[in-house]
Write a structure and sequence with these properties.
The protein has helices at about 10-20, 40-50, 70-85, 105-115, 130-140, 160-170, 190-195, 215-225; strands spanning about 1-5, 25, 55, 90-95, 120, 145-150, 175-180, 200-205, 210, 210-215. It is α/β, with parallel strands linked by helices. The strands form 2 sheets. The chain has an 8-stranded parallel β-barrel with strand order 1-2-3-4-5-6-7-8, surrounded by 6 helices. Strands 9-10 form a two-stranded antiparallel ribbon. The model has no long low-confidence stretch (mean pLDDT about 95).
Amino acid sequence: MITEIIVTNSEEAKLAQSFGSNRLELINSFAFGGLSPVLNITKEVCESVDIPVNIMLRNNSSEKFIYSKYDMDNMLQELEFIRLYTKANGIVFGALDRFGNIDMTALEIVIANKGHLKLTFHRAIDVATNIISSYKQLLAITQVDWVLTSGGAKIAIEGIDNIHKMVTMSRNHTNAQIIAASGITLENAPTIIKETGVQEIHIGTGVRLNNTLNQNLLKKLSSCMNMI
């Protein structure tokens, strides 16, 4: 079982690593669902740990995940810095068009510029017009390594049916593997894992108290994952 923890700085990154996190997602602003982190913090975090760090690439807080040319130009500048000057493992990006379909133009531009970096398509898929057909589309793109999803629901425990469908769809593929996300806690993680068959989970607020990464919750999470 792969556990990915959301962090916002190098202190959190080191703490998450020390309690067995397999991979990190670096963001800025939990309040907006995760935005691009400051670039010097990105470099610092990647150098502070030995486990993979994926960097959020999202400079627009719109919940529709629609990006203007100005947004894309800025994100491509961020991407160039991440690719050239950090030890990042990958980027976390997603975009939709005004009809709620995957914005293939934006995605193809990011793929063309990401170089060696891996790519997670984030929870933009959860507000797509049709999550299952959108996922099928992503499965056809070999450069998409993971898809982060709550199954189209507000939280993963409510999207179990769709997550299970997506995990089943992924079984004959090596790309676009599902990472269950949103509202995952120590209490509901075992149920989500058992009922969906997912092999990777993504946890943010579930291991935080007062918006701070909590050592005791990380320790309990590590013990919980070891028992699954």
